[in-house]
Amino acid sequence: MNSALRHICLILVICVSRGSTIKVACPEYVECECNETTIRCHSSEPRDTTKLNQNFFDELKDFIQPTTTHLTVSGGNITELMKNSFGSCSGDSSKSHPSLTDVVLRNNNIQKIHGQAFHCVPNVLRLDLSLNNWTVSNVNHAAIFSGIPSLEKLVLTDSMKDNYSGKRHLRRLSAVFNNSHLSALKDIYLGKNDLWTFTSDASSTLCRVTKNLRILDLHSNNLAKVVFDPCFGNLTNIQLINLRDNSFIGVTLNTVRMFDQLYKNNPIFTVDFRGNQWDCDCNLVDFVKWVKTTKVNIRGKQNMTCHDGQNMGKYLWDIPASELVCVARAPAQTANAGVVVVSILLVIICCVVVVVIILKRNSIKEAYTGFKKSYFAKDVQFSYASVNNSNVDV
């Protein structure tokens, strides 16, 4: 009897082990790996020749299995995420993909995302759209993320079009958030998008959209300041605001007070200011005092360095408040600087004139010769006229 049971158990183990390696349908003409839970496609080819193109992505939804939990497509040339990119399940729940929790669409040259692009994937928890070329739609009701109400992590690092107004990106992205259902959102990554301001409107949008915000990543933008709406002080789960590698030269008193409030709400709250170029003068006194006294966790605070003024190269942590002074420039220095600038401009203009004369010397010579002939011809005509008049009998 025991021997029979052992045989039955062995057969079950073999069946289960074989079941775990069952191959599923997978696109054959592209570099994809597929199993019961994962579809992973990557291309290293140039964008104009890659097979991970728009046609491929439009067909990919047919390969998503009921057991698929992870979908990754990277290195492709998928310029648009169309409506119902993952299937059309309206009125037919069997075409939905409730098991899918992770979608990575990194580095695919995505330029446009249509409303309802993420329908039929209601349980996606993590969405990565980094390294794309997205121009955020100006459509007022583009509910782009409305189909993924369970979304907890949204990665938009370096996802927006270069050489485009960062302020416009942020304003339109706020409109997208307002028209989506993202109450579960915890982590949002907006680094490397050339944002040069984070406004009170943007922060109030996040407050309205989610009460569960945990990470706000704004690293490697061009931020000179951030302004937080008072509602931000009500967030109780926030753990990190990443402001690393921006363009801060100082931080307002209202901002540091907000950081103190967030620390009271959550003692593990951390702010990252590393990589900013601080202008260590009288305008930074309050901020330096705050850095030295606050309980907020500041990453690398003892290595924050001055990049301008008489304290250049010094650590903020080591500078006493008495040395944070604004040096007024003397009028004579200002005048001398003006003289130097004007002199340089005159030298440049003279050099340009000389270069033009050298390059156009033949044309100038011809023009001068023509002018000289014309001038002397007139002079001769005038002389002859004078002589003739003098000989006329009255």
Structural write-up:
This protein has 394 residues and is an alpha/beta fold. The protein has one domain: Ribonuclease Inhibitor (Leucine-rich repeat, LRR (right-handed beta-alpha superhelix), Alpha-Beta Horseshoe), CATH 3.80.10.10. It contains 8 helices and 15 strands. It has helices spanning 2-19, 54-60, 166-178, 200-209, 253-265, 285-293, 331-359, 361-390; strands spanning 32-34, 38-42, 70-74, 80-81, 102-104, 112-113, 126-128, 153-155, 187-189, 215-217, 240-242, 270-272, 278-279, 297-299, 306-308. An 11-stranded mixed β-sheet has the order 1-2-3-5-7-8-9-10-11-12-14, with no helix packed on it. A two-stranded parallel sheet has the order 4-6. A two-stranded parallel sheet has the order 13-15. Helix 2 links the parallel strand 2 (38-42) and strand 3 (70-74). Helix 3 (166-178) packs parallel to helix 4 (200-209). It is flat and about 80 Å long.
The 3D shape can be described as flat
Strand order of the main beta sheet, please?
1-2-3-5-7-8-9-10-11-12-14
CATH A-level architecture:
Alpha-Beta Horseshoe
CATH secondary-structure class: Alpha Beta
Largest sheet: 11 strands, mixed
The topology string of helices and strands comes to HEEHEEEEEEHEHEEHEEHEEHH
Helix share of residues?
A: 25-40%
